[in-house]
Write a structure and sequence with these properties.
CATH architecture: Roll
Shape: elongated
CATH topology: Membrane-bound Lytic Murein Transglycosylase D, Chain A
Order of helices and strands: HEHHE
Strand content: 5-15%
Number of helices: 3
Radius of gyration: 21 Å
Largest sheet: 2 strands, antiparallel
CATH class: Alpha Beta
Number of domains: 1
CATH superfamily: LysM domain
Helix content: 55-70%
Number of strands: 2
Length: 97
């Protein structure tokens, strides 16, 4: 087998491996989010709400988290890139159902 054929086979192998790993990661993350949605409350953002005000309202129900940790958890679990939220947006919060 010449070197060009080996390089081509190696490249295809890496692409196949990448696709398989991506699919496995996708299903793992999807199942984790679905499990979390059954465990934690989901709220609807009202006009004038901020992540900090939501933390102030609900943090008393989860005193294991500081307000800053509460906000970080909400950003992380809801895939927020910034603290910007909009009315009628659904957010999962770290409060048991």
């Amino acid at each position: 087998m010449n070197s060009n054929a080996r390089k081509s086979t190696r490249g295809i192998s890496f692409i196949i491996l990448f696709v398989i790993m991506s699919v496995v990661l996708f299903f793992t993350l999807t199942n984790t989010v679905a499990a979390d949605q059954n465990k934690y409350k989901t709220i609807t953002v009202n006009s004038g709400d901020s992540l900090w005000s939501i933390a102030e309202n609900y943090q008393k129900e989860n005193q294991n988290l500081s307000k800053q940790a509460f906000v970080h958890w909400v950003e992380s679990k809801n895939g927020l890139i910034s603290a910007h939220i909009v009315p009628n947006q659904k957010l999962m919060i770290p409060v048991q159902k």
